[in-house]
């Protein structure tokens, strides 16, 4: 992939901000670090424009097709990935390629990107660095919101639960309706960005397409089944991973309904803050894999249900261990729209 980086000049100071970066021909100033994980770092950056040009007429505005993706104040999220070998380089290139396939308001758009060669230093052995630019959502992920709400013993309302979930369904519907269909493969609260809106339910956006692949795979041997399981163990979060990705038969047709399983787990998590199977990790002799493969859902105990029983039944419907009887995204959307009509305030 012909990713270039022109005029690169970066100095990183996560504590104090500072440092300028050019992504291709557009200049950004690092404001602060937002997060990190593995070999990736996420920074809040601000586009630097000349005195004679405004943010709305700056360099990025000329490149981005959808003006709704532009920031009013010129701030964005920049993901920096340290790449140590050719395998990692190909994974980043694939993430960039796949991200460019999607265009939907509930899927995080990739606004710009660059990959550069760097000389290894004493601090690290990486030989490439990738820079991916996205819209910024400073209200954090669903996971971040769970932690903040848990500290206050707070929960989303039934209406907000359904509206957040409906938006995730819309994003996945876009991915599943492509030709060929794509599966996200890592739907979980940590990959859902929220933006709180006054008088409305939060805006929900699905992000991180590093694990997204064509959804439909024909498994015709034990070695292919084991390869799929190994791939899933590296790319799909365990508490949200579908049974067929834990124990794949030697003859199976795997499809986008792996996302439906993760979606059911995520709906449970929107309500209760965790996957429906994480309880197994805290039990003596408990097995997360067995709990998932057998669909042993455990509902929170209490004298009063926080949410309508219809939502519990909805989750159970999505968490069918046999993928052939698990609903598709169109079925899910039809049902959630009925629930929204029933429980809307």
From TrEMBL:
InterPro entries: Kinase-like_dom_sf, Prot_kinase_dom, Protein_kinase_ATP_BS, Ser/Thr-specific_kinases, Ser/Thr_kinase_AS. GO terms for molecular function: ATP binding; protein serine/threonine kinase activity. Keywords: ATP-binding, Kinase, Nucleotide-binding, Serine/threonine-protein kinase, Transferase. Residues 28-340 form the Protein kinase domain. ATP binds at residue 63. GO terms for cellular component: cytoplasm. This is non-specific serine/threonine protein kinase. The lineage of its organism: Eukaryota, Viridiplantae, Streptophyta, Embryophyta, Tracheophyta.
